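Q: What would this complex look like in 3D?
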Amino acid sequence: MQIKTLPNNLSAYKKSLLFKEAVHAFLHEKGFLEIELPVLSPELIPESYLEVFKTEFIYNDKKQSLYLTPSPELFLKRLLTRGIGDCYSIGKSFRNSDPPSPLHSFEFTMFELYKMHASYMDIANLVLEMLQFVNKKLNGKESDKINYNGVSVSLKKWEKIRVAEAFLRYAQIKEAQLFDHKKFLKAAREKGYKVEGSTYEDVFSQLYVQEVEPHLGMNGFPTLIYDYPTEFAALAKLNEDRKTAQRFEFYIAGVELGDCYSELTDWKEQEKRFEEEDNKRKQGGRIAHPIDKGFIQALQYGLEPCAGIAIGFDRLAAIFANVKTIEETKLITIS
Amino acid sequence: MRTKASGLKKGEFIKHLDAIWQVQRADFYSPGKGSALMKARIKNLITSKNIDYAFKSNEDVDVLEVSCLEMEYLYKDTESLYFMDQRSYNQYTLPLSVVGDVANYMKEGNSYYVYVYDEKPLTMRPPSSVKLKIIETEDAIKGDTVSGAKKIAKVETGVTVMVPLFVKVGDLVTVNPETGEYGERVKE
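A: Here is my prediction, written as structure tokens for the whole assembly.
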């Protein structure tokens, strides 16, 4: 790896600064508190699909393991349980073993936002309003459209589609197959995917990326795809059908930009999911780290109903700067 | 040779869905649902068509051990290009559809690299540039000094290339055979 200086990106970089300014302006107007956060933590939320960066604080002969946070969630939720209210942070997050690609880096800017007494669909409305606000600031008062990668997207409304509908429409997988592991893997095998030795989650992810994702945010509007099978509930509340979780992702021109949950507030369920994720991490030979028990304690203290979204800030900046890669919005990178 | 998809690299040849493909690009992608993926753009060597395919990053992929041999380009007809391995004197044939537009810039008698797998030629490794003589072009109009202005020129293989105004008949220029773009004027 090396340090790359990219002075030719100045114009896109300046656009990304204007974008950031507009996001702050919108959120301040809406009464959200900006929170500055640490990036090093002695404990983390266990997430089986992420690898972490480990380092040490050393003083005399004392050593303390610290980890670069792969997301600001553990900090922000602690504050939520203490009544901080609607808040957000825009800061660096780190994911080890993720080689750089056009739309991802192992060090990236995460924009995370929480709104109290809100559900995931309230966040959807807020995000759409934010996109409209930012676009007007950047592209003029009359502007309700953006063009990215040759795709014209109107920001007037969401194209909303349930995960099950999207699988039916784009991958010809019926709802009865989607929610039944055996039937799903059989359908995937018939389509030519390798399923031996793979989990439902892995094959779902492959089909989703291969057959569903290329259509999202491509039909003239940003796409909001929602209600994922419970296997992908992560920290999201379940729907009444108990088959799906209140989670959505949103896309513009095929690019995944954000991931939103109606937040799980049940500490017992959260503790159970932490253990499952931690076991998967151990089985997968990932770097061991202490589980953030304080997070569970904070939830025991009580988390009011709320919803939150994590947005890939660099990606959204690249879209508003109309450049193909996140690197093109940077003046200096490591890659 | 079986390898994990996470190790796929541009230029490698793989067996996938009963066909042979060359990896055009491979990007790591972690969608946060299930394991990470390798999003690859792969080119089918029979149809020359590119497709995008998302491999699970831990999925086994058959990477083929392909040799790259220097061969003399003999001639082409309406369907194929004919090559000769200068060491073994074996002749190899590649369909025009596999070589694509690069064939328009290839000179008979010159050496090119051909990928061979299991004694069968797969495709060519296009050179980054080829030197070609200009055989036809109009003289530049005096006083036309618009910078970057271009004109049409015919090169010795019979195709046309856009060149700067100062280029004359008899000049030798470099052309990128994959894009057909002019590079620079060079000496013999």
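A: To summarize the key features: Chain A has a mean pLDDT of 95. Chain A is about 35% helix and 25% strand.
Q: Very helpful, thank you.
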